[in-house]
From TrEMBL:
<dbReference type="InterPro" id="IPR044015">
    <property type="entry name" value="FBPase_C_dom"/>
</dbReference>
<feature type="binding site">
    <location>
        <position position="109"/>
    </location>
    <ligand>
        <name>Mg(2+) 1</name>
    </ligand>
</feature>
<dbReference type="Pfam" id="PF00316">
    <property type="entry name" value="FBPase"/>
</dbReference>
<comment type="pathway">
    <text>Carbohydrate biosynthesis; Calvin cycle.</text>
</comment>
<feature type="domain" description="Fructose-1-6-bisphosphatase class I N-terminal">
    <location>
        <begin position="57"/>
        <end position="182"/>
    </location>
</feature>
<dbReference type="Pfam" id="PF18913">
    <property type="entry name" value="FBPase_C"/>
</dbReference>
<keyword id="KW-0963">Cytoplasm</keyword>
<protein>
    <recommendedName>
        <fullName>Fructose-1,6-bisphosphatase class 1</fullName>
        <ecNumber>3.1.3.11</ecNumber>
    </recommendedName>
</protein>
<feature type="domain" description="Fructose-1-6-bisphosphatase class 1 C-terminal">
    <location>
        <begin position="190"/>
        <end position="318"/>
    </location>
</feature>
<keyword id="KW-0119">Carbohydrate metabolism</keyword>
<feature type="binding site">
    <location>
        <position position="112"/>
    </location>
    <ligand>
        <name>Mg(2+) 2</name>
    </ligand>
</feature>
<dbReference type="InterPro" id="IPR033391">
    <property type="entry name" value="FBPase_N"/>
</dbReference>
<feature type="binding site">
    <location>
        <position position="197"/>
    </location>
    <ligand>
        <name>substrate</name>
    </ligand>
</feature>
<keyword id="KW-0378">Hydrolase</keyword>
<dbReference type="InterPro" id="IPR028343">
    <property type="entry name" value="FBPtase"/>
</dbReference>
<dbReference type="InterPro" id="IPR000146">
    <property type="entry name" value="FBPase_class-1"/>
</dbReference>
<feature type="binding site">
    <location>
        <position position="269"/>
    </location>
    <ligand>
        <name>Mg(2+) 2</name>
    </ligand>
</feature>
Amino acid sequence: MLKLPNDGPATGRLLSQVLAGDGPAAIVRAIAEAQPPLMERLGAGRLHGDPTEIVGVNDTGDKQKALDVGAHHHMIAVLRDAGVRQVLSEEAEAVIELNPDGDWDVAMDPIDGSGSIGIGAPLGMLFSIMPAAPEGFLRTGECVVAAGYASFGHSMDFGWSLGDGTHIAGWDAEAGEFRMVRENVTLKPAASTIAYNASNERHWARGLQAWVADLRAGRDGPLGKNYNMRWLAAAVGELHRILLNGGAFLYPADNRPGYRNGKLRLVYEAMPIAFLVEQAGGLASDGTQPIRYRKPLAVHDMTPLIFGAKDEVETILGYLAEPSKG
């Protein structure tokens, strides 16, 4: 590895020391330890084959790439060994039973942002943990006790929360382990960076279109400040960036067929994001209520999602709530 003039030995506690407990902590640790093989396969690109090869279609109609399915099976084996009772995965139509006597259920998106596989853009995985219960995953986000994500970019990072704040670790290749990078991440309530897909603006509710117009007016408009725009096309990448640098993200419902109830998956994308963001002092909403209060009617239910810095999210929700603009 290239050494910069001010570089020294890697610092930060090892993740294995921080997550030394059992229960959800042990599951989070097992998920973290399962990430390096995924990062290595991403890094290999097309050297051994094509990770973007289409090998199927998932329950929500998205094309499954070879890496999607490979990551799914990889994580299922890890979670089985971790004693998890059952798993809900984006890449499987039905809930997967693993250990009938297990105490915990896990919902996951094994590869989030898979449309960017092979082009070097950030992507990763998301998960949440719930206590085992007869109703399975058809519960509100209030039941989530732990959540986390992996981010694969120029570095491999792992963020999580056990309900005691949101924390981020980075991969130390020399040690072969994650080390702590940031503990108790706190989102500033105001932000100047917003992430959304501008190509969809014309389909949005009038309130959101009014917000965008005011946003673009910058310091001279009603919002009184200039904004930067970002769009990574991977919710996990946006989550990681926002936890590190602040900002807000939105993928709202719109008027196109198939998008009127949003497009992100409630249980294994929106719920873990909401848990992590709220543990960091931010907000996560579907546009009308906090994500944590949403109860899915089906395991692959979709939802609109707005999350990030508290003041920015509240501003967006205020525009959505105006009767004359909604």
